[in-house]
Amino acid sequence: MKYFKVILLIFFMLCIASCSVQEPSDKTEIPIPTITPTVDFTPEPTSTLLPITFTKEEFPKLDGSTANIPLGTAIIQKLLNVSQDEADLLCEFNTTADSYINLVEKKTDLLLVYEASEKTKEDLSKAKEELEYYPIGLDALVFICNETNPVKTLTTKQIQDIYTGNIKNWKDVGGEDKVIEAFQRDETSGSQTLMQKLMMKDLKMTKPKEDYKPGTMGGLISSIAEYNNTSNALGYSVFYYAKNMYTKPGLTFMGVDGVLPSNETIKDGTYKYTNEFYAVIRKSEPADSPTRKLLEWILSNEGKKIIEEAGYVAK
Description:
This protein has 2 domains: 62-138 and 275-314, Periplasmic binding protein-like II (D-Maltodextrin-Binding Protein, domain 2, 3-Layer(aba) Sandwich), CATH 3.40.190; 147-273, D-Maltodextrin-Binding Protein, domain 2 (3-Layer(aba) Sandwich), CATH 3.40.190. Strands 1, 2, 3, 4, 5, 6, 7, 8 and 9 form a 9-stranded mixed β-sheet that branches. It is built from 12 helices and 9 strands. The longest helix has 19 residues, at 2-20. Helices cover 37% and strands 16% of the residues. By secondary structure, it is an alpha/beta fold.
């Protein structure tokens, strides 16, 4: 009887086990999760402009404003892989007005240039060639005086009154009792264009004495520096040229409305008297020409980098 009970118990346990271990009739598939990469493997966009190569023979002829000579030299040095001295020899700029005429007469291919004067624009309107303008940077109209001048800043209205002849003595703007010797530039110069456009607007400037109207920006700066070695001279130029290209001991920038010009104040707009400068080509330039190829490079990020490395404020 005892063994019969043990056998019965074993049989009962086997039945339970056989009932619990059954294969499911339908197998359920376990979904495999999609893994999203944490690193972006999207390739960086490649530029068809870089690397860009030119031979000296096919490199477009550059021209432009005097203040843009260092930019032209930097571009030539970068793209032709030549020394600074060789780039200087290849960079022949003929001033703002002459460079525009050279472009429409096909004596040059691409300008790095400031805005043309009204007279130059009138001359260009008579030409058969249309031009394309591309803003590439900012410069500023700046005022220069002797560092011994106790007046460190002038208001817009005071500058306008000085150059219309309404204010003639430094004592009327907080300075010493000295006549203001106000120098100007010739009508077609880039700095005169900026002076008329940005500062004077519709106001008529007083006619200066003949020797108070130097023919070049360098001449104006030299005249202010050398004028009797006193503090009563005042003149204007473009910021880049006066700061980086033609400096004279004893001169300083005059603030305007309490703000001194600098790369930072020009870029952020706190110095108000700024204007664009341009890359300019003929509209008729073929799409696949070296000139358009160079223009596209100047407008690229690589071109902007060169503009900034040369000390300009890039657009």
